[in-house]
Amino acid sequence: MLAQLEPALSGLKLPLRLRLWDGKELDLGPEPSVTLVLHDPSVVAQLKSPSLDALGSAYVEGKLGLEGPIREVIRIGDVISQALVGENGDAPPSRQMHDKATDAAAISYHYDLSNDFYALWLDRDMVYSCAYFETGKEDLDTAQQAKLRHLCRKLRLARGDYLLDVGCGWGGLARFAAREFGARVFGITLSKEQLALARQRVEDEGLEGQVELELLDYRDLPQDGRFDKVVSVGMFEHVGHVNLPLYCERLFGAVRPGGLVMNHGITAKHLDGRPVGRGAGEFIDRYVFPHGELPHLARMVGNLSEAGLEVVDVESLRLHYARTLEFWSQNLENRLDEASGMVPEQTLRIWRLYLAGCSYAFSQGWINLHQILAVKPLEDGSHTLPWSRADLYR
């Protein structure tokens, strides 16, 4: 069996060892740092044309074992896939129908996994989105607090402002905005597990008078312009291409004239929003984010503009998310024994690949992350934003 694989793989000179189910081994390069353990004969055929989806699925399903640093596993897997499969850049973009029931089920699948599991590898506020590294040397807690501050400053949040937090997660941003900037916050989520813990943390900090969190779909947001500012972090990836115009219209209807809207989310590399290549996108859709779809920056800017919002600032945080995911991945790797008691073995395998793989994807430029700031113009078309960004960095 190994003889079938050697011609295809040995020329790559990778620090990789293959171990068959009968104990036989083959080194494909000097000083192997990673070992692929083939538990199932069917994996041999997959390794002859190894898409990232096929390799990931084989690991998740227990047909393939991995030994070695997870970041090196991801790198070597990509080299093998690129050499033997090549790029499939012509894959058609995903277009899925999204309704309230489908989206609620998808959110529950991902976010209702286990609050304790997420707490193992997130920062102390459990902020499950890209951090902001002002110098690149910060630890995760510091960088996440900097991200929350960066968002609030971009929104020019002031004491007494009424802030809508779309996809509030465990409430880290809502509490920060209330505590540090004196805002009133209304946050929404579709995750019951997140909501329960978020409300508890609001109560623990004595912020019940400033922060209200509800289980609510973005399609049901009030459309009377009651909010001064709107922020949406790591949420529009779940909306779907088909519903992006509606999503932007709901944000427009929720904010007052002159108010600001901040959308922080992952964006696609390609204009048509096609999934990440060589099967990586398919793996994420199947195992991690069902029905998730990434729009290109241009599409999102266009949808915001068509809804009546004027885009005034865009910032890429691609390298920031690569670093954030590197922290998350390493935190999980450091606590695998604890994690194994919280989630099923297959789930833990998914998350090991997902966190390390996404860090690699961002570092390679396969996907990006953009903060898009928009304003709802006043009746005469004007707005009151500062003439420069100087106030953000004081």
Can you put this structure into words, describing what you see?
By secondary structure, the protein is α/β, with parallel strands linked by helices. It folds into two domains: 2-84, 2-Layer Sandwich (Nonspecific Lipid-transfer Protein, Chain A); 100-393, 3-Layer(aba) Sandwich (Rossmann fold), CATH 3.40.50.150. 43% of the residues lie in helices and 18% in strands. Strand 5 (162-166), helix 8 and strand 6 form a beta-alpha-beta unit. Helix 7 (140-154) crosses helix 8 (172-181). The longest helix is centred in the last third of the chain and has 20 residues, at 345-364. The protein is elongated, with a radius of gyration of 22 Å. The relative contact order is 0.13. Keywords: Lipid metabolism, Methyltransferase, S-adenosyl-L-methionine, Transferase, Ubiquinone. Residues 13-75 form the DUF7884 domain. The active site is at 358.
What's a concise summary of this model?
The chain is of the alpha/beta class. It has helices at 2-9, 42-48, 52-60, 70-84, 100-111, 115-121, 140-154, 172-181, 192-204, 244-254, 280-287, 297-307, 318-334, 336-340, 345-364, and strands at 16-19, 25-27, 34-38, 64-67, 162-166, 184-189, 211-215, 227-233, 255-268, 310-316, 367-375. Keywords: Lipid metabolism, Methyltransferase, S-adenosyl-L-methionine, Transferase, Ubiquinone.
